[in-house]
UniProtKB/TrEMBL annotation:
Transmembrane segments: none annotated. Coiled coil: none annotated. One of its GO terms (molecular function) is transferase activity. This is 2-isopropylmalate synthase/homocitrate synthase post-catalytic domain-containing protein. The lineage of its organism: Bacteria, Bacillati, Bacillota, Clostridia, Lachnospirales. Residues 223-295 form the 2-isopropylmalate synthase/homocitrate synthase post-catalytic domain.
Length: 327
């Protein structure tokens, strides 16, 4: 069974976290069917060792001699295995050709492979296929880095090749890693992973992450961006309203989002009719003239026409109507 381990909290030692925020974040991961979480010693001490049930906990340590200080942590990531069954050896791979060193190794669930920056950048698909077969043979916890912006794709592909594989990721890809939310939705769409599970808690986890890091996630970030289901283009709007699945890999409700038609210089008549229906004004206005007014307003301000501005335009049309000027 494919598994995901989230290592976000190891990237947040420099932030002012609270016990409440960390506990809420861990509960959010559980709601997403993430199987495990990696803690830093600092986060562990912040929680005072009180780890929520339902997750398998991991920790990176320079030496296994310190592992006894952290009861409740099941596995420790180190540079070597000590034979206790609790240690996971970490190997850094900085180049695809280093994977040849894995040839002949038997499946090793006590191995984490970090790196693989260049696995997807070669023109030959055969090179990539051989690399994946080597990984499947060894079956490590795969923790790809994102120097070539391919980490999420590599992690998702690994799980598609290897249905019993395990990947390690971070929320938003913080720390130059694969993004937890992107890998989750990729395997949901392609492999029907957890087909009856809802990932609407992703929007809450996004808000929580922003609170912990005091940052704002881009509105167009894949999966969790607040505006990824905002549509403006006339043809796009018309198509989405007729059959959303032609344009959207998954419905917005799955990730706690909602679709919104926004008005701007690229809008078409379908957008105007949609907005008129939304405000219960259909049939009362000339769509083409409204569209012209919206486009002019958008180009003048250099951005989208808000709902409030659209209502103002409707009010202006009402005034024109009163003076016998059709709108």
């Amino acid at each position: 069974m494919m598994k995901m381990i989230d290592a976000t909290l190891t990237m947040l030692d420099e932030y002012s976290l609270t016990k409440e925020l960390v506990l809420e974040f861990l509960e959010g991961l559980k709601s997403l069917s993430v199987s495990g979480a990696v803690l830093s010693p600092k986060v562990y001490h912040l929680l005072k060792g009180q780890l929520p049930e339902g997750l398998v906990y991991y920790m990176e340590l320079p030496s296994m001699a310190e592992s006894l200080k952290y009861p409740g942590v099941q596995f420790f990531l180190s540079s070597f295995c000590d034979g206790t069954g609790k240690s996971i050896r970490n190997i850094q791979v900085n180049d695809l050709w280093e994977l040849k060193g894995l040839e002949g190794m038997e499946g090793d669930k006590k191995l984490r492979l970090t790196g693989l920056d260049d696995l997807l950048i070669y023109e030959s698909r055969d090179i990539y296929e051989r690399g994946m077969k080597l990984l499947m043979g060894v079956s490590p916890i795969l923790y790809p880095e994102d120097s070539y912006y391919c980490a999420s794709a590599i992690a998702a592909d690994y799980l598609q090749y290897h249905h019993n594989g395990t990947v390690m990721t971070t929320f938003t890809g913080i720390g130059n890693k694969a993004a937890t939310e992107q890998v989750l939705l990729a395997i949901r769409v392609v492999e029907r992973y957890k087909p009856n599970h809802n990932f609407d808690k992703l929007s809450q986890l996004r808000d929580l992450f922003e609170e912990m890091t005091k940052t704002e996630i881009s509105a167009h970030t894949p999966v969790i961006g607040r505006k990824i289901f905002y549509i403006e283009s006339g043809i796009h709007v018309d198509g989405v309203l007729k059959k959303p699945s032609n344009y959207e890999s998954f419905p917005p409700e799955l990730v706690g989002a909602s679709r919104k038609v926004v008005l701007g210089k690229h809008s078409g008549g379908a957008s105007i009719r949609y907005k008129l229906k939304e405000f219960h004004c259909e049939g009362n206005y000339n769509v083409e003239q409204l569209l012209d007014m919206v486009k002019r307003r958008s180009m003048k301000k250099g951005g989208e026409v808000t709902d409030e501005e659209f209502l103002t335009i409707l009010s202006e049309c009402d005034e024109y109507e009163k003076t016998n000027q059709n709108c």
